[in-house]
Write a structure and sequence with these properties.
Length: about 450
């Protein structure tokens, strides 16, 4: 029998290590929470007698001879219940592995229901008296470990079953993952696929559905401006450079006298100077507005201008100054708010930025730095999730060349081109975690 210890930051990663190194026949002997994560002791060629001799499993805590009989009994009951919970978990996983639901209606639902009943056995086996706080805390920790183990197993079983029963749909989800599309968005897009999809449809339909779900505003450079537009967003997404590109396009069509820039960034050192530099190059006047009153006054002066672009400070969602910026931009209802998002940022960071600036109710977004993004699936996922229409996209630092009106089909083509540069396939454990239908063990 081969026994090995695995340590990982969480249960999913620990179980993945066990599966990768020891395979599906490995037996979990014990789990334990540690300061640096989760410890799992697993074995191959399981021999119960040898395990007992080695001392694995939970034993009753050491007791003083003068300990009350009730405390001794509680400790023994706790140890017995944890052992029962482990045994029930092992039995549940073993039954799940051996049970192949019939390929009839809703096989995944049948499998999940059977496993949920096994999970209930685990919970009942681990119930302890609330009179012993130490025992309760100990069992809670054990139950959390057991829950995570079962969730990993349930997810893996559900994904493997989908791969067998619906191979084309599983292939589409795998390709969406390679594109960088987030799990929730990929599931929603796949829900639009026809039930009787053919292999040929599985190749081109997903990209068409992805394109259809990317909203664009239809703004182009012949109609750029026509009012006051404030560009907002977090630090480093390219707001000032994008304003210079938009201003240059507006100058070419409407003349420098009909274009004005406003710097409302009173926090970043040199922010006004950078905008002043662009203004001098374009022959456009730059105004400063440090609060709601000054912004309102500046806008009154610029009523006759065709295009007015407002540059704002780059602030993170947890920055206390963000509320001040909101109040400044709400000074007038004439300001159209456009959220600038960097395509090379992580999907979660883009999603957080959209949520942070949601109180301003941005009418649209601009997707920048397409040339710096290894994949753009995360950015596309965020704008699809929030239904945020795109005005423009940028793909370089050149002013005014590297900007274009947003085109959903071109974005999908770019996503596919970037995918060709990557050869690695998504790990099955990641796919199981994203798309496996895991039944919650405990609320």
């Amino acid at each position: 029998m081969k026994i090995k210890r695995f340590v990982a930051p969480d249960m999913r990663q620990a179980m993945r290590q066990v599966r990768d190194e020891q395979g599906p026949d490995a037996v979990i002997l014990s789990t334990r929470r540690m300061d640096d994560g989760i410890e799992i002791i697993a074995a191959l060629d399981y021999d119960e007698a040898l395990v007992r001799e080695a001392g694995f499993g939970v034993e009753a805590p050491a007791r003083r001879e003068d300990a009350p009989i009730r405390a001794q009994r509680d400790d023994l009951e706790r140890a017995a219940r944890i052992d029962q919970a482990r045994a029930a978990t092992a039995a549940a996983v073993e039954r799940a592995a051996k049970t192949a639901p019939p390929a009839t209606a809703a096989p995944q639902r049948q499998s999940s229901a059977a496993l949920a009943a096994s999970v209930a056995d685990v919970v009942r086996a681990a119930t302890v008296s609330p009179n012993n706080d130490a025992a309760v805390n100990g069992v809670r920790a054990e139950i959390n470990n057991l829950r995570e183990m079962l969730e990993v197993q349930l997810s893996t079983l559900a994904w493997n079953q989908m791969d067998r029963d619906q191979p084309l749909r599983a292939r589409v989800l795998r390709e969406m993952t390679r594109l960088g599309i987030d799990g929730d968005v990929a599931r929603a897009l796949c829900a639009e696929l026809p039930p009787g999809m053919t292999a040929e449809q599985a190749r081109y339909l997903p990209l068409g559905i992805l394109s259809r779900n990317i909203r664009t505003s239809g703004r182009n450079f012949d109609t750029v401006g026509g009012g006051v537009t404030a560009l907002v967003g977090t630090t480093g997404v390219g707001k000032t450079t994008t304003i210079a590109k938009l201003a240059a396009r507006a100058v070419l069509r409407h003349g420098a006298s009909n274009v004005a820039l406003i710097s409302a960034d009173q926090y970043r050192i040199g922010a006004g100077a950078q905008l002043e530099h662009y203004g001098r190059l374009l022959g456009v006047r730059v105004f400063n507005a440090h609060d709601a009153v000054s912004l309102r006054n500046v806008l009154l002066q610029l009523r006759g201008r065709h295009t007015v672009l407002v540059d704002t400070a780059g602030l993170a969602g947890n920055d206390p100054k963000l509320q001040e910026q909101f109040e400044t931009l709400r000074a007038t209802s004439d300001v159209r708010v456009c959220l600038v998002l960097a395509a090379n940022a992580q999907s979660q960071a883009i999603d957080n930025a959209i949520r942070a600036y949601a109180p301003l109710a941005p009418q649209s977004a601009i997707l920048t730095k397409l040339d710096e993004a290894p994949l753009i699936g995360g950015a596309l996922s965020a704008v699809i999730r929030h239904g945020l229409p795109l005005d423009y996209t940028t793909d370089g630092q050149r002013v005014p060349e590297d900007i274009a009106s947003a085109d959903a089909r071109k974005l999908v083509c770019l996503a596919a081109q970037l995918l060709k540069q990557r050869t690695e396939e998504p790990d099955d454990a990641i796919l199981a975690e994203r798309f496996g239908i895991a039944t919650p063990v405990l609320a």
